[in-house]
Amino acid sequence: MVIQVCIGSACHLKGSYEVIQTLKSLISTYGLEEKVTLQSSFCLGICGKSVSIKVDDQVLSLKPDEVIDFFKKNVLEVING
Q: What's the pLDDT at 81?
């Protein structure tokens, strides 16, 4: 699984650094370094809804306070079946 987090201007201002740090921590906590690749990216096309993220081929919007719920539902459940 590849997760890209936009670090462009709008997303940076709305918390992309916090989103990245939280995702890095969760990936490490759950030992998913071999299954989840976290990357930074520039514009993913939904700047008005920042922070933009792309999971495999799906582009989503995520606020810093939504990262843990997102991770549980969209990463752990997918990987663990």
A: 74
